[in-house]
């Protein structure tokens, strides 16, 4: 199955891929080939987008904003600090786990992509009735055929997508499995950094908040 669009405006990364982007997880609903026929001259100083895509519809599970430093290097997701709270006369500690700060939902993603719509105007208007908010939590993303057509996914697969800026265009896509379930960036290097960051914060709190009195061994049972 395939679809197409005639598009008569600027179709470049500079125009459509602004912002930090998102990391989005969900269940693959369907995919097909979508072609964009660009009918006007494009700015020579800008980077043209591809025109043949794998259009991926997923049922949204969760998402976060991508996090970058001033040098354009992607960082682990922003986290709250884990905290240790004392309670009781023995200064027993309850730990509040670190949590991700920049979570986003479907409404926020649509607001960033197309002012509340799941797709920008004239991208693929026929698809909008079958996407969020009319079909709750269903989103569509476009992956370059030349880069991603070799990837083998099927309906029902759990996938993770990183977008190019706040757009529907895919920078990377992976199938979720035990090797990358906890890796919110979809690559091992960032996943390692993410894990080390959490453990560093955990150790800092452990060191600075040790109880001053000995606890009864029974309190740990």
Automatic annotation (TrEMBL):
GO terms for biological process: directional locomotion; negative regulation of actin nucleation; negative regulation of cell migration. It comes from the Eukaryota. Belongs to the Arpin family. PANTHER family: ARPIN (PTHR31199:SF1). This is Arpin. It comes from Dictyostelium purpureum. The lineage of its organism: Eukaryota, Amoebozoa, Evosea, Eumycetozoa, Dictyostelia.
């Amino acid at each position: 199955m395939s679809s197409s669009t005639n598009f008569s405006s600027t179709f470049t990364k500079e125009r459509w891929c602004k912002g930090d982007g998102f990391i989005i997880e969900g269940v693959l609903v369907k995919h097909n080939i979508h072609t964009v026929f660009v009918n006007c001259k494009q700015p020579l100083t800008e980077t043209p987008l591809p025109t043949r895509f794998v259009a991926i519809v997923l049922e949204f599970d969760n998402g976060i904003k991508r996090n970058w430093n001033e040098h354009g290097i992607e960082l682990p997701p922003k986290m709250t600090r884990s905290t240790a709270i004392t309670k009781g006369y023995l200064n027993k500690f309850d730990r509040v786990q670190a949590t991700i700060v920049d979570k986003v939902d479907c409404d926020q993603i649509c607001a960033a992509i197309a002012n509340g719509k799941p797709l920008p105007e004239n991208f693929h208007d026929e698809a909008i009735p079958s996407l969020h908010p009319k079909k709750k939590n269903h989103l569509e993303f476009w992956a370059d055929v030349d880069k991603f057509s070799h990837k083998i996914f099927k309906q029902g697969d759990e996938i993770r997508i990183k977008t190019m800026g706040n757009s529907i265009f895919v920078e990377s896509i992976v199938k979720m499995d035990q090797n990358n379930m906890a890796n919110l960036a979809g690559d091992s290097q960032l996943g390692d950094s993410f894990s080390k960051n959490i453990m560093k914060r955990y150790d800092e709190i452990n060191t600075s908040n040790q109880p001053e009195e000995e606890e009864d061994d029974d309190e740990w049972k």
